[in-house]
Amino acid sequence: MGTLYLVATPIGNLEDITLRALRILREVRLIAAEDTRHTRILLDHYQITTPCISYHEHNKLARQADLLAALQTGDVALVSDAGTPAIADPGQELVQACLAAGHTIVPVPGPSAPLAALIASGMATDRFAFIGFLPRQQRERRELLSDIADLTLTIICFETPHRLLEALADIGDVLGARQIAIANDLTKRFEMIMRGTAGELIEHFTHQPPRGEFTIVIAGAAQTESRKRERHRLRAAAPAAEPATIAAHLRRLRAQGLSASAAVRQTAQDLNVAKNTVYAIWLEIAADETA
């Protein structure tokens, strides 16, 4: 049975590819590419003639069967348009299908936009989370930001140019004046990494319209050890809030237009109650109002 190779390709500069990656791309019987025209530029540059077929979000279901069939007779390489495949793209579904079918998965590491942006951001690199593309809809985007607001680790995400200003506005509103680094055109001639608060970056991109995809690195929530200890002390010392008190607090926040996740999080903080307890009461309120 064939092996599926996950081959990282350059995120801009064609020199940023490993010798191993070039060898694998020459040796496999087939290359599955997010955009064959884009990948062909790389292959032609290195005089690689391996056949390519497309594999992307819109044809992943139809192509999956073709790739599994190809793996029965030889090895296949999966590449994305740029960087490491199977991260924030349909490659992860192909990996799962190949594992279920008994094929071997071999990573061929190399360029990665999230890691490149992180190490150049100047922010903490020892603990971080990559959350992919931010949601398109503002409500979902703000709910996600609310859910991660208390995380003290560095956050990395992607955003498109036409949503960048809206995303920065939501980041500023929900997360406050944190330090942010925005990377664009990494490893290319006009590589850009800007640092500042959401407000400062909005001002810049209002006058310089964004182009291309962006990698955003956001500093984690600031929380000293003393604040941690104080929070634990208050939770231990405070008497448990009555369900009626919790419900009243939730209804007030709901009337103010807060989402479920935001209202539960705020109530848990204000009343020093576990989130799962608050969420259970929220579900009861919602059930009563729809009954």
UniProtKB/TrEMBL annotation:
Enzyme class: transferase
Keyword Methyltransferase: yes
Gene3D superfamilies xref list: Cobalt-precorrin-4 Transmethylase, Domain 1, Methyltransferase, Cobalt-precorrin-4 Transmethylase, Domain 2
Superkingdom, taxonomy of origin: Bacteria
Subcellular location as annotated: Cytoplasm
EC number: 2.1.1.198
GO molecular function: rRNA (cytosine-2'-O-)-methyltransferase activity
Residue stretches making up the Tetrapyrrole methylase domain: 3-201
Keywords: Cytoplasm, Methyltransferase, rRNA processing, S-adenosyl-L-methionine, Transferase
Catalytic activity: cytidine(1402) in 16S rRNA + S-adenosyl-L-methionine = 2'-O-methylcytidine(1402) in 16S rRNA + S-adenosyl-L-homocysteine + H(+)
Record carries keyword Transferase: yes
CC terms in the record's Gene Ontology section: cytoplasm
A Pfam family per the record: TP_methylase
Family: Belongs to the methyltransferase superfamily. RsmI family.
Known role: Catalyzes the 2'-O-methylation of the ribose of cytidine 1402 (C1402) in 16S rRNA.
HAMAP family the UniProt entry points to: 16SrRNA_methyltr_I
Identification of the protein by name: Ribosomal RNA small subunit methyltransferase I
Name of the gene: rsmI
